[in-house]
Design brief:
This protein is an alpha+beta fold. It is 39% helix and 21% strand. The protein is built from 15 helices and twelve strands. Strands 1, 2, 3, 4, 5, 6, 7, 8, 9, 10, 11 and 12 form a twelve-stranded mixed β-sheet that branches. A hairpin with a 4-residue loop joins strand 2 and strand 3 (123-136). The longest helix is centred in the C-terminal third of the chain and has 21 residues, at 369-389.
């Protein structure tokens, strides 16, 4: 935002942030909180600690210590923020979106940095990875979106080196968790703060994990997500519970290509949503299948789940791209609605892009875990403020 815009909106920003005032032990610390978020909103070439401090006339060292050491309860700020969203932005059509973001970093001091998979670029590179949960009402005209939770993905190499973790201020009880597990914990925490989702959605990195579907079942939460071609299921119950190939679970691409559950159906053409240039239209087939029950202790044999899940295959009419989706929604769920949910994932990509451009989401230059988590929190609050003003 320009300086004039910041001045005109400052009373609204102060009113928002005062909600979190009780979680700051000193008024001076709260003023640095306001200063930092204002800096994230300002027109600065780079929105890291030093440029923000210099623009605000604050000692750089002081702003560094605000993020690293000053006494304020960022966890309670986070909880209060989720309760604010639950109270003021509740929607019966709310969608939660799980996704990870990668941030390029050099050196070896930033918490969690190492050569690892960079999803957006589709390659391995040196970066820090965050796991995030976005909330959206998916309004087709003017969608409200905010990121409710951001957690560091701690690689196993870091988790196994506790001396390195302590040097970076990573708590001893923070261990390696796969991204899907972090995502499930984020969903449960948000629900505990009153947030309600009609649906959850995610890409194949999450949908590929059978345990994620069973965790959503446990919470009573509907989800729909993409899976890869090698995801396994049964279109019908096997005649025998056997490890032999004829009775084993099948890849979803083969199921959609050869199973009578799909070959006996015609492609159904549906319009998912309107776009600026042309509407998004796909052809789809869907059937009910059983997943592989991973709770069975017999690792040499796979068993089908007691309940059925949706398996959908779509074909993009513009690109001929084939995609596969799974959902734990009940039998009576509307096919079009499930597809609309999974194609709402672009909300989080836009949020990441805007967050990095407008609120310094990826501009952290820190060496401690607390600083990183607090930076992400301040950036998310800055983006929330922008969303409420637009």
């Amino acid at each position: 935002m320009t300086a004039d815009q910041i001045r005109s909106l400052r009373p609204a920003l102060v009113a928002l942030l005062k909600r979190f005032g009780p979680f700051f032990k000193r008024q001076n610390t709260f003023q640095y909180f306001l200063c930092y978020i204002t800096g994230l909103l300002a027109e600065l070439k780079r929105k890291s600690i030093e440029p923000i401090a210099l623009a605000a006339g604050v000692p750089v060292r002081t702003l560094q210590e605000f993020l690293s050491f000053f006494a304020w309860d960022d966890r309670r700020v986070d909880d209060s923020f989720e309760r604010l969203v639950a109270d003021e932005h509740a929607s019966v059509h709310a969608i939660g979106i799980l996704d990870a973001s990668s941030h390029p970093k050099t050196g070896d001091k930033t918490p969690g940095v190492q050569r690892q998979w960079w999803g957006r670029l589709g390659k391995v590179d040196t970066c820090v990875v965050g796991q995030h949960l976005l909330y959206t009402d998916n309004n087709p005209a003017n969608p409200f979106c905010c990121v409710l939770a951001s957690d560091l993905y701690l690689p196993e190499s870091w988790a196994n080196d506790r001396a390195r973790c302590r040097e970076a201020g990573i708590p001893d009880d923070l261990n390696y968790r796969p991204k899907w597990r972090i995502g499930i914990d984020q969903i449960e925490h948000a629900i505990g703060n009153g947030v309600r989702f009609e649906w959850m959605t995610f890409d194949a990195e999450y949908g590929q994990i059978p345990q994620l579907w069973f965790e959503l079942d446990r919470m009573g939460q509907w989800g729909v997500g993409e899976v890869r071609t090698n995801f396994l299921c049964w279109p019908t119950l096997p005649q025998y519970q056997s490890g032999q190939r004829p009775f084993a679970a099948k890849r979803v691409d083969n199921v959609c290509r050869h199973s009578p559950a799909f070959t006996g159906k015609k492609w159904r053409r549906v319009q998912i949503k309107d776009r600026t240039r042309s509407p998004l239209i796909v052809e789809v087939k869907a059937a009910r299948v059983r997943l592989v029950d991973t709770s069975n202790p017999d690792n040499n044999r796979s068993y089908p789940t007691d309940r059925k899940y949706w398996l959908m295959v779509t074909r993009n009419l513009d690109t001929n791209e084939i995609k596969y989706f799974v959902s734990n929604a009940p039998k009576g769920a509307k096919l079009l609605r499930m597809l609309q949910v999974t194609f709402a994932r672009d909300h989080i990509e836009r949020w990441f892009r805007t967050g990095k451009q407008e609120a310094g989401f990826g501009a952290f230059e820190v060496r401690t875990y607390t600083s990183l988590i607090r930076h992400w929190l301040c950036s998310r609050l800055a983006m929330y403020f922008l969303a409420t003003q637009t």
